[in-house]
Design a protein that fits this description.
Helix content is about 65%, strand content about 0%. A two-stranded antiparallel ribbon has the order 1-2. A hairpin with a 2-residue loop joins strand 1 and strand 2. Helix 1 runs antiparallel to helix 6, helix 5 packs parallel to helix 20 and helix 11 runs parallel beside helix 15. The longest helix has about 30 residues. About 5% of the residues have low confidence.
């Protein structure tokens, strides 16, 4: 009963700020367009009512939050908010499964869509999709912790929400850490809006696409995605902010507040991430030139934008990815498993885990060749502890196991391997666009397939352990 009360208490501010950040702006757009959406209004009013009930009841009680509460609150929050976030799509006429798929894709910043024609959606619903990604990017739990007073054990909730944020780069105080994250997120959002507007976007498009860019979401208000604009300046702005958002926010925080720009060069994960990104760009450009016979200007443009978009797990496209043949899309999808840096809003396994894996592998080979050699694997000058190595190996093992499980479910539905592989990769890495039959959207996928991918998106967003731990009986024991 106590655990239930803790969850109910946390859901109050979560629903309140979801309604304020996502629902209210969307409803205002619908109101001024003279097509006021009553579904949005109902969600807004019920969220406010529920928040007030919690404010005057459970809010006054003192709870001690355990790690178990942190994981449970995070998982329940994402699932319940996704169920509610699906209602505006459902009231518009979509099936509930499609609506839930769209809502989960938005909140997890995946960017996959089951909508075959975005031009049929009114402006308020288009903006609603973009705001879902923006709110999900920094995490609704982070927003709550940034504003409400820090609760006892709240750092457990913060750590369960996402890895890498609550590190020594930030203040050790929970509330200051969350506020720093939120403030930086707001700053880069408005910088992105300004940059898009100056580059030629309308104000509506600038806000809409900045929400999905800084969150590395991949949603657009057009079926052609970024290919709609045909503007090199806009593409360069997107590239810049995709890289910023895929880098550890702790490094940005140090650079902005303490002018420690050398922190980037001293961070092993960031250097490794840049090496992977640059290498992938070079390979993609060469493949487009030599194998697909693109002209140099197109090979540079598509190779640069599309590789950065996929490898950072943003998911923006200039043309459907099948337009690049099979080699380039398959290659960048494989690299996307590495993902963004820890402490960023990107998906994937995260670069630091792959870096640890590689350094341990090199260390093992060195010991095979020189049995008496003393070799210690380090990251940022700090020895990699055996517990970290075990955690990384366990994570990657379970990651592959979940990936194969989701892949088999899709294949058993008579989906060809190439399409099923891309869809599973896009979901669990929070990437977005697929290949083959899913190169444009996921409307042809069965309801079971959409539910499978929706669950894969949540698993990827919570970095696996946040979901997996809930299925162990020992987790529920005191």
């Amino acid at each position: 009963m106590t655990t239930l009360l803790k969850v109910l208490r946390f859901l109050g501010p979560i629903f309140l700020f979801f309604s304020m950040l996502v629902v209210l702006p969307s409803y205002m757009i619908s109101y001024f367009d003279n097509i006021a959406d009553n579904g949005l209004l109902i969600i807004l009013l019920l969220s406010i009512f529920y928040s007030l009930v919690i404010r005057f009841t459970l809010r006054k009680q003192k709870f001690i939050y355990t790690p178990r509460d942190g994981f449970l609150i995070t998982f329940v929050s994402w699932v319940l908010v996704s169920l509610i976030a699906a209602l505006p799509f459902y009231s518009f006429g979509m099936s509930y499964v499609d609506s839930f798929f769209e809502a989960v894709s938005g909140l997890t910043t995946t960017g996959s869509t089951s909508i075959s024609s975005l031009s049929e959606l009114p402006n308020y619903l288009l903006m609603y999709r973009q705001l879902l990604q923006w709110a999900g990017g920094v995490g609704l739990v982070i927003v709550v912790l940034a504003i409400i007073p820090a609760v006892s054990g709240g750092v457990k909730v913060l750590q369960a929400e996402t890895s890498g944020f609550a590190e020594k780069s930030f203040s050790p105080r929970l509330r200051e850490t969350a506020r720093s994250l939120l403030m930086f997120y707001l700053i880069i959002t408005f910088l992105c809006v300004s940059a898009y507007w100056f580059a030629g976007m309308s104000l509506f498009d600038a806000f809409a696409h900045s929400f999905s860019t800084v969150s590395i979401g991949g949603f657009s208000t057009y079926d052609q995605n970024f290919g709609h604009f045909q503007n090199t300046g806009i593409e360069l702005v997107a590239i810049g902010f995709m890289i910023i958002s895929s880098t550890n926010f702790g490094l940005h925080f140090l650079a902005v507040t303490k002018f420690r720009f050398t922190s980037y060069l001293k961070n092993d994960e960031f250097i490794f991430f840049l090496i992977i990104l640059i290498s992938a760009i070079v390979v993609s450009i060469l493949l487009l030139l030599l194998k697909e016979e693109f002209v140099l200007s197109d090979a540079l443009r598509y190779g640069l934008f599309q590789t950065i978009s996929i490898v950072t797990t943003s998911g923006f496209t200039l043309i459907p990815l099948d337009g690049f043949g099979q080699a380039v899309p398959f290659f960048i999808f494989i690299v996307a498993f590495i993902g963004a840096c820890s402490g960023s809003v990107g998906g994937g396994m995260k670069a630091w885990r792959i870096l640890i894996l590689l350094r341990v592998a090199v260390d093992s080979i060195t010991k095979l060749m020189h049995p008496n050699a003393v070799s210690t694997s380090k990251i940022n000058g700090v020895k990699i502890e055996s517990s970290q190595i075990e955690s990384v190996f366990a994570f990657i093992a379970f990651y592959i196991a979940f990936f194969l499980l989701f892949l088999f479910i899709l294949i058993f539905q008579d989906i060809d391997f190439y399409s099923a592989f891309s869809a599973t990769t896009a979901a669990i890495n929070n990437l977005g666009p697929g290949l083959g039959v899913f190169s444009e959207n996921y409307s042809s996928l069965t309801d079971l397939g959409k539910c499978t991918l929706a669950f894969a998106m949540i698993v990827g967003r919570l970095e696996l352990f946040g979901v997996l731990i809930l299925f162990f009986p020992s987790f529920w024991k005191n």
